[in-house]
Amino acid sequence: MNLKNIKTINCNLFSYLFKNIGDLFILMKDLKILFIGDIFAQVGRNLVVKNLTSLIDIHNVDFVVANGENVTHGRSLSLWHYQTLQNAGINVFTMGNHTFFLKEAISLVQEKKNIIRPANYSKLAPGRGSFVFNLKNYQIRITNLLGQTFMPQHVENPFLLLDEIVQKDESDFHFVDFHAEVTAEKIALAWAFDGKITGLLGTHTHVPTSDARLLPKGTFFVSDLGMTGPYDSIIGAKPEPIIHARRTNLPFRLIPATGRGQFCAMVLTLDVKTKKVKTYQQIYQIFA
């Protein structure tokens, strides 16, 4: 073998090793997921369209999950708004008690695998309540559940249903969006599955809570992410009709508020070795 051939072999070997070391480095790099609280009506949609790209760049986000049950005029998710927000950078939409308020949402939820409706709806309901997504050779399961306390729909027990999902789950990371009214119900579910899921993030109340934490066995928990929508509002709606209804006990129509907006979200850094949340950062920004 002449010197030229030896040099060629060495160069090829170096290139092979460098490529594989590079691939290994990418595989061992922490992952970052952005979870966005309930996107409410036009103000919320505009906030996402205008600001999501910069937030992804600032925080080096790999994957974006957002609660989309209030996207279209405060109730449900239309095809047009789904496409708009997906193009803005959202990878997965979780839902809640307003999932099927719009008729078109029935077929949308059935057809789009990245829309996750509550898993404890009837088994005959269209769509899926839990699904595994691939991200950089890792599998991330997203599950959506609806609370039972003070919620209008009759749904299966979220504790028992999550037991079933966890027993069959083989994903690397498993996050649950628990769309529930009562903080105690959310906290109880998180403690019940501490060490069995990667994180439980509460939605629905539209009010961000300051109780984000890692539970003793490593599961991340926050009672509520808050709302991405109108800041000068009562959980997204114009104040005047609601105040009038409180004073008179008369029915009212929910009208989405306009004006300033708030962006509520959480950035989670995932340790790919331990398969747990490494760090977390709450985002709460007001936009004129």
Task: Furnish the topology, listing elements before pairings.
Layout: H1 3-28, E1 31-36, E2 38-39, H2 41-59, E3 63-67, H3 79-88, E4 92-94, H4 104-111, E5 115-116, E6 130-135, E7 138-146, H5 158-168, E8 173-179, H6 183-192, E9 199-203, E10 213-214, E11 220-222, E12 227-230, H7 239-248, E13 261-271, E14 276-287
Parallel strand pairs: 1-3, 2-12, 3-4, 4-5, 7-8, 8-9, 9-11
Antiparallel strand pairs: 1-13, 6-7, 10-11, 12-13, 13-14
Helix pairs in contact: 2-3
Distinct helical segment count: 7
Q: Proportion of β residues?
A: 25-35%
Kindly report the oligomeric state of this protein: single chain
CATH topology: Purple Acid Phosphatase, chain A, domain 2
Structural class from helices and strands? alpha/beta
Considering DSSP H and I runs of 4 or more, what fraction of the residues is helical? 25-40%
Our measurement of the CA-to-CA distance between the termini, rounded to an integer number of angstroms, reads 72 Å
What is the fourth-level CATH superfamily? Answer: Metallo-dependent phosphatases
Question: How would you describe what is shown here?
Answer:
This protein has 288 residues and is an alpha/beta fold. It has one domain (31-287): Metallo-dependent phosphatases (Purple Acid Phosphatase, chain A, domain 2, 4-Layer Sandwich), CATH 3.60.21.10. It has seven helices and 14 strands. The chain has helices at 3-28, 41-59, 79-88, 104-111, 158-168, 183-192, 239-248, and strands at residues 31-36, 38-39, 63-67, 92-94, 115-116, 130-135, 138-146, 173-179, 199-203, 213-214, 220-222, 227-230, 261-271, 276-287. Helix 2 (41-59) runs parallel beside helix 3. The longest helix is centred in the first third of the chain and has 26 residues, at 3-28.
